[in-house]
Automatic annotation (TrEMBL):
One of the Pfam families matching this protein, by short name: OSCP
Location in or out of the cell: Cellular thylakoid membrane; Membrane
Family, per entry: Belongs to the ATPase delta chain family.
PANTHER family associated with the record: ATP SYNTHASE DELTA CHAIN (PTHR11910)
A GO molecular function held by the record: proton-transporting ATP synthase activity, rotational mechanism
Protein name: ATP synthase subunit delta
Gene this chain is encoded by: atpH
Keywords of this entry: ATP synthesis, CF(1), Hydrogen ion transport, Hydrolase, Ion transport, Membrane, Thylakoid, Transport
Function field: This protein is part of the stalk that links CF(0) to CF(1). It either transmits conformational changes from CF(0) to CF(1) or is implicated in proton conduction. F(1)F(0) ATP synthase produces ATP from ADP in the presence of a proton or sodium gradient. F-type ATPases consist of two structural domains, F(1) containing the extramembraneous catalytic core and F(0) containing the membrane proton channel, linked together by a central stalk and a peripheral stalk. During catalysis, ATP synthesis in the catalytic domain of F(1) is coupled via a rotary mechanism of the central stalk subunits to proton translocation.
Bilayer topology term: Peripheral membrane protein
Family matches, as PROSITE patterns: ATPASE_DELTA (PS00389)
GO CC terms: plasma membrane-derived thylakoid membrane; proton-transporting ATP synthase complex
């Protein structure tokens, strides 16, 4: 299955990136995609509607037209309608996530997934951003956050396959391992 997804997701994401680059809209389309992903994450009904093969393409296009109106870039709207025409709309989410990965690469940006016990304030985000830039040599850092009170304190930072566990829970676990050794 993952090979099929790769064969579908990558070319469509590359095509969208190509259109975005040639029209100097890479970041605008990226912002639109983040809004779209947020909408999809918050609406299981929308995800199921778009993925349902029984629903007519014209009905899907009408809903997409309502969603995209003026807020979304016309290139992204047309791209999404093309996915409906080609029967690929169920791959929308992985395609646009791949676009964001290509955008980060294009902008020399890394994605840092930060898990903390509480929501981070702006100062903490900036501090983490500088730390991640130092670790990776990237020009920019995009931070996504998750809250996990079980960490007790501190943070866990994941950048690609690298994980830095600076949580209190992680420190206690490491102490426990040393004591048992």
């Amino acid at each position: 299955m993952s090979a099929i997804v790769g064969e579908i997701v990558e070319p469509y994401a590359q095509a969208l990136m190509s259109v975005a680059k040639s029209n100097n809209l890479t970041n605008e389309i990226g912002d639109n995609i983040r809004s779209l992903l947020e909408l999809m994450e918050n609406s299981e009904q929308l995800r199921k509607f778009l993925a349902n093969p029984v629903i007519k393409p014209d009905d899907k296009k009408a809903v997409i037209g309502q969603i995209f109106r003026e807020e979304m870039n016309p290139y992204l709207r047309n791209f999404t309608l093309l996915l409906v025409d080609r029967g690929r709309i169920s791959f929308l989410e992985p395609i646009v996530k791949q676009y964001l990965a290509l955008l980060r690469q294009f902008n020399k940006t890394v994605l840092a997934e930060v898990t903390s016990t509480v929501e981070l304030n702006e100062g903490q985000r900036n501090h983490l951003s500088e730390k991640v830039k130092g670790m990776t040599g990237a020009d920019h850092v995009e931070i996504t956050t998750k809250i996990d009170p079980a960490l007790i304190g501190g943070v866990i930072i994941k950048v690609g396959s690298r994980v830095v566990d600076a949580s209190l829970r992680g420190q206690l676990r490491r102490i426990g391992i040393r004591l048992n050794a």
